[in-house]
SMP-30/gluconolactonase/LRE family protein
Amino acid sequence: MKNALIKSIPSQCFLGEGPLWIAKLGCFFWVDIEKGNLHRYHLTSEKLEIRHFPNRLAVVLEGQDGKLILGLGRRLVRYDSETEEIGELCAVEENLTLNRFNDGKVDPQGRIWIGTLSTLFTEGAGSLYLIGKNLQPEVQLKNLTISNGMAWKPDHQTFYFIDTPTKKIQEFSFNPESGEIKFRRIAIEIPEGLGFPDGMCIDREGMLWVAHYAGSGVYRWNPQSGELLDKIELPVPHVTSCCFGGENLDVMLVTTAQENLSAEDLEKYPQSGDVFLVKVEEGGVESYRAKI
């Protein structure tokens, strides 16, 4: 293992998710979905700020002009962190009151991909949406249960996607101009005993780094061969997502969760819900800014 844990940040999230690095600000962001908290961590000063929202907060993305884009419940909003002003962008599934947004990412062209799930985790109740400049959500995938991790290969021709309970990472062809995806194959199947694939990111070599819920770590997979290459072992069971950041994109921020853990579990794994910074030798690909 060449990768080394730098430090943990004691954020004690119930459901930490959605990590994001914004280079211009020198900050990592992440959310605590159930508590509605937005965390902002200044990498240099190590200052942590938390903003609370009276909704489930599933996603934070980089918008234009220094604004953030947030997924609140089933609404997508623009958020000015200086003035705390919120502007409505669009909403999905307004008749599905048990549903909420889950993971979201911005594609290389600045469009938003964001999925939904039922808060009862009803099988097939979720969808994956594409939202462009017209702010009209378009369904890309249906019958999902826990719409989760997404990544694009550095050449922008391939899209990877996770529906967590399937324990599979799907590979799609990706048309950068239209955003159209077409299923190619199952790139990776997670073996028994390694937990469930959750959020993910991609490194410069096109390898996938996948947070394994109930798998105590972030696993590096080769999507061409399906081979497990490496693992960042963490002292908590529920690892939820990861992203690259730092000046050289060689620092990984990893989110974790306390949900589905008993009092005894939390006593055994007291850092559950904290965030971990790991120095990663391979280096990652920067996230994209939304153009809506």
